[in-house]
Design goal:
The complex is a heterodimer of chains A (514) and B (104). Chain A is mostly helical and 514 residues long. Chain A contains 21 helices and no strands. Classes of the chains: A mainly alpha (514), B mainly alpha (104).
Chain lengths: 514, 104
């Protein structure tokens, strides 16, 4: 079936859309560069992003290639089970709205390290937040680069190494010259294009099924068996399923590159509104990917999809070609490429902010670095991190790096989530509790992942793994909370209760009024 | 865990601020608990009741799909409910604090 499909080869339409996107993004970068002079503008776009714009950018950060191509691909091959991942992705966003959005914006300036440093009155904590932020960011960057190289090869037939250099080069240009403003607008444009693509494809696909998704599901189950409508083998170990769900729900709410976007809006109210927009967009989008997965299963066929990519990543491009011909396929391929570029740029600026603002200015220079020094270090860190991402992307070609997703979400859930939660909601939280809790969450995640089937069986090809859990959040999150609480209670001499009253006031009224 | 402690000796404005903060915390924590409970109920039901969830309510629509979409619907409902409460009740109380008045 795949013989007459052109997905996997560059065509005129795909190259035109691809070049058009790159040119537009460079124009945005040029426009943003003229407005990015200070570190405040570089790190947070001068807090000038509106709630709707930020909501779209937040959604774009999350609904990347893994959401658009990965989840729909999984649905196209196994049916219902793909919905479990889609729902897991949705849940973290309301959690972020309920617990963190507004308080974080009112307490911090550029990073969540600001929030902990201000709450605990200790710049030392930034060293730990810097380690977790850089760890998570580099894990995500590497995973995106390796995945992107493979994906671009599949979509355009482009050489893997060339794809890595193009992606690395463009993300460097966006961040280096345009800072957060360029990064955000590239993300917004990509998110809008991707949403339009998903809506258009769903409309075209459902037109074959009387515009009724249930008719589509019924037709797909008649052709592929009723098992596609019910839970399959994805959840075989209930404890593992709960652990993955916990990691997704709490980890998504604590990812540094997502948290950083709260500081690009003017105030807490705008942060709250952006999270409502983001939650709505992500929920609708992920439900559309479920429908699109079934459409691909029925209209393209499981065998044709898995023949091009065993993971199902080509389901959407193949469906696009089926529905709208090579021009529409070209549009989808270009949007997928744009997705990767936008996401890696967001990760890069988060890493650069941590190095320059948290580690260099606040820790090394004790908050006394000049604007010139901060900007120099920010740009040097941008170049260094981009080179690290490119080098690791090239070196790890063909390697199984899927464990990095679990590692990053687990570290976010076990190290960052308890720290941010306790900082906002617990009066007796101390810097000793924060440092011990975060370090234990980080180290436990690393150890558990190493001995899990994800590394021992999938990567090292051993027959068994000493820890049966694929994601350790169910152990590491409670452990980190426990250590944080015990260490805080044991170090109450260093806790100033009046500090929390100031924090409470600032959480409610914002920085200006406190 | 003690989230907030009362402090009768504090001046009225601080007490007012604390009351607003406590109410906001209770709503935030309750909404989170409700959402996580619904989500984990969905995941656990998938793990333990696969056969029951395979039942088709109408051709093409299994109980599993209905539960999955309902979980997302519930998440959206909580999101909008929370933000409406914050806009209408919490923000009014915060504005009262900003204006120097007491918590209402």
């Amino acid at each position: 079936m795949s013989a007459h499909l052109t997905a996997g080869r560059a065509n005129f339409a795909s190259m035109s859309f691809f070049v058009l996107f790159l040119l537009s993004s460079l124009m945005i970068t040029w426009w943003a560069a003229r407005r990015t002079k200070t570190s405040h503008e570089f790190f947070t776009a001068g807090a000038s992003i509106g709630p709707l714009q930020n909501g779209v950018a937040l959604a774009g950060d999350f609904v990347a290639a893994a959401g658009f191509l990965g989840i729909s691909g999984l649905v196209s091959l196994v049916g219902f089970d793909g919905l479990i991942y889609a729902i897991g992705g949705v849940i973290g966003w309301p959690v972020m709205l309920f617990l963190f959005g507004e308080p974080l914006r009112n307490l911090g300036k550029y990073s969540f390290g600001d929030v902990l440093a201000y709450r605990l009155n200790s710049p030392r904590i930034r060293i730990v937040t810097g380690i977790t932020t850089l760890g998570i960011t580099i894990c995500y960057l590497v995973m995106q680069m390796v995945g992107a190289g493979d994906l671009v090869h599949l979509l355009f037939g482009m050489n893997y190494d060339v794809a890595i250099w193009i992606i690395g080069g463009f993300m460097l240009v966006y961040v280096l010259f345009g800072g957060m403003l360029a990064t955000t607008w590239v993300q917004i444009i990509k998110a809008v294009l991707m949403s339009l693509a998903a809506v258009a494809m769903t409309f075209m696909a459902l037109s074959h099924f009387h515009f009724n998704p249930v008719t589509l599901f019924a037709t797909a189950s008649a052709s592929n068996g009723v098992a596609v409508l019910s839970p399959g083998k994805l959840i075989s170990n209930p404890l593992d399923a709960i652990s993955v769900s916990l990691a997704l729900a709490l980890g998504v709410a604590s990812l540094p590159h997502v948290l950083m976007r709260f500081f690009t809006v003017p105030d807490g109210r705008a942060a709250r509104r952006s999270l409502v927009y983001a939650t709505t967009i992500i929920s609708i989008f992920l439900m559309l990917t479920f429908v699109l997965g079934f459409a691909a299963m029925q209209m393209v066929g499981k065998s044709a999809i898995s023949a091009m990519d065993r993971g199902g990543n080509m389901a959407i491009p193949l469906l696009a070609e089926k529905l709208g011909g090579s021009s529409f396929l070209g549009f989808i391929c270009a949007v997928s490429f744009a997705t990767i570029l936008a996401v890696v740029s967001g990760l890069l600026i988060t890493g650069a902010t941590t190095v320059s603002h948290d580690l260099f200015d606040a820790v090394l220079k004790r908050g006394r670095a000049s604007q010139t020094q901060i900007m120099f270090v920010a740009r040097a860190a941008t170049v260094a991190l981009a080179l690290v991402a490119i080098a690791l992307g090239l070196v790890l070609r063909g390697q199984n790096v899927a464990f990095l997703v679990g590692l990053a979400t687990s570290v976010a859930a076990a190290a960052n989530f308890p720290a941010i939660f306790l900082a906002i909601y617990w009066k007796r939280y101390t810097v000793v509790g924060a440092i011990w809790g975060m370090l234990v969450g980080l180290i436990a995640s690393l150890v558990f992942i190493y001995f899990s089937p994800t590394i021992q069986i999938d990567v090292l090809k051993h027959a068994t793994a000493s820890i049966p859990l694929r994601n350790p959040a169910i152990v590491c999150v409670p452990l980190s909370f426990l250590v944080s609480i015990v260490a805080s209670l044991l170090s109450q001499k260093r806790n100033d209760p009046r500090r929390y009253e100031q924090i409470e006031q600032r959480i409610l009224l914002g920085a200006m009024e406190s | 865990m003690q989230v907030i402690t009362s402090a009768p000796s504090l001046p009225p404005t601080v007490n007012s601020l604390r009351l607003v903060a406590t109410r906001r915390q209770r709503v935030s924590l309750s909404a989170t608990a409700a959402l996580l409970a619904a989500h984990f109920a969905f995941v656990i039901s998938i793990a333990f009741y696969k056969t029951e969830l395979a039942v088709q309510l109408i051709p093409g629509l299994s109980l599993a799909i209905v539960l999955g979409f309902s979980t997302v619907g519930f998440a959206l409902l909580l999101t909008f409910g929370f933000v409406i409460w914050v806009d209408r009740v919490h923000d009014t109380a915060v504005q009262g604090l900003r204006d120097g008045g007491d918590y209402k």
